[in-house]
Design a protein that fits this description.
This protein is an alpha/beta fold. It has helices at 21-37, 57-73, 87-90, 94-98, 134-141, 148-164, 277-282, 307-314, 336-340, 345-357, 363-386; strands spanning 2-6, 14-15, 18-19, 42-46, 77-80, 102-105, 115-119, 122-129, 171-177, 179-180, 199-200, 210-214, 220-223, 226-228, 245-251, 257-263, 270-275, 293-298, 318-323. It folds into 2 domains: 2-263, Purple Acid Phosphatase, chain A, domain 2 (4-Layer Sandwich), CATH 3.60.21.10; 270-326, no CATH class. It is 32% helix and 23% strand.
């Protein structure tokens, strides 16, 4: 069976205020063409179809168009909700839509109930594990403490139990939206940290033939059977080195996997350039970036006059301007933003405690801080789902 694995469409999202709806529509056209021309048997979409719980109307219309075009091909599609989606909204009408071959899996309780498709080699069971917010699903899965690894492990126990009851030789595919250990994140994924731990080990998914992951925006292979497709379009300059693509996966009769990357069309290349303003304007080696979307980091010791206007004269698609002046190593004055860069909420809070009283929090106090951050994140998720 030939699968096309994609995820993280983020319909409705902009790129540094640039409307991406046209590029997203071009991707949907590319997806449909790939399905038709490469004889795809099933499409899997591993979450974050939309960029937010209540997407703009234009994004909903594009999604509706995608569903109609996929259904018209007669190729089954299985998709799950991600942490950016409203599972309830995305799942509206799932039973009816399923009759057209579009199978939406947004309910955690259905983790062990697969969509079963068949080819000449027999049946393939597709298990959809939507994004599982630990605080909201721990009771459903009977775990004592909310955590990503615990709830995913419990969901996979249901998958393996169902698979064990099926005829020998039944192949299996799991769709999941999670941060799996070994994956390389970018700046454009929403933080899903709970209990100080965001990632889960790939071993959680042992026992199935292929795991189609969503959440991280870079296409990557964790094992031959566990892969991220990545987002089809860039959503932050941290993705400048990404090759945007989908996975074309051939699942053989014995469950072995062969995978090929299918490139996605992107509207412009991304470029991150760094140096003094005069150097950036005069460097002939930067000519290749003149039509790219540019993030420019200026290292001038003193902020130059009209830097954006001067940059856009050469790089008309400059979208981000960052100031990072070169300073002596012993210079003590560092900007507040730079002191916080790359630090988690937990680390910032612990540093604040140490600054105020002269000593950092003890293990018990660290736990109190962690529980407080978890409660805030869970409350934000509940409010977003309820919107």
């Amino acid at each position: 069976m030939r699968l096309l694995h994609t995820s993280d469409w983020h319909l409705g999202r902009a790129f540094h205020r640039v409307n991406m709806l046209g590029a997203q529509a071009e991707f949907i056209g590319h997806l449909v063409t790939t399905v038709r021309e490469r004889s795809v048997d099933a499409v899997v979409v591993s979450g974050d179809v939309y960029d937010r719980a209540v997407p703009p109307l234009a994004a909903v219309e594009l999604f509706d168009d995608a569903l109609h075009r996929l259904a018209a091909l007669g190729v089954p599609t299985v998709m799950i909700s991600g942490n950016h989606d409203s599972a309830r909204r995305l799942g509206v009408g799932a039973g009816l839509i399923g009759r057209a071959g579009i199978h939406l899996r947004t309910e955690p309780s259905a983790a062990g109930t697969p969509v079963v498709l068949a080819d000449d080699d027999g049946e393939v069971a597709f298990y959809g594990l939507p994004y599982l917010e630990p605080a909201l699903v721990k009771d459903e899965f009977g775990v004592e403490k909310a955590g990503h690894e615990a709830v995913l492990a419990a969901a996979m126990d249901r998958v393996r139990a169902d698979l064990a009851a099926r005829p020998a030789g039944t192949r299996s595919v799991v769709l999941a939206h999670a941060f799996v250990t070994g994956g390389e994140p970018s700046d454009s994924e929403r933080d899903i940290t709970v209990g100080g731990v965001a990632s889960v080990p790939a071993g959680v998914f042992d026992g199935v033939d292929y795991v189609a992951l969503g959440h991280l925006h870079g296409c990557q292979t964790l094992t031959d059977r566990v892969r991220y497709s990545g987002s089809p379009l860039p959503y932050s300059f941290s993705e400048a080195a990404h090759r945007k693509s989908m996975w074309l996966v051939d699942l053989a009769a014995d469950g072995s996997v062969a995978a090929e990357r299918v490139d996605c069309p992107v509207p412009r290349a991304l470029a991150r350039i760094r140096g003094t303003l005069d150097d950036l304007l005069g460097d002939p080696g930067l000519t290749r970036h003149e039509e790219a979307w540019v993030e420019a980091t200026l290292t001038d010791p003193v902020r130059p006059a009209d830097p954006m206007a001067r940059l856009t004269a050469r790089f008309p698609h400059t979208l981000s301007l960052v100031f990072d002046p070169d300073r002596d190593e012993d210079e003590s004055e560092v900007s507040y933003a730079r002191r916080l860069a790359g630090r988690s909420d937990q680390e910032i809070a612990e540093d604040f405690v140490a600054h105020v009283r002269g000593a950092g929090p003890d293990p018990h106090e660290q736990g109190v801080l962690r529980d407080a951050f978890d409660a805030v994140r869970a409350d934000e998720t509940v409010r977003e789902v309820a919107r």
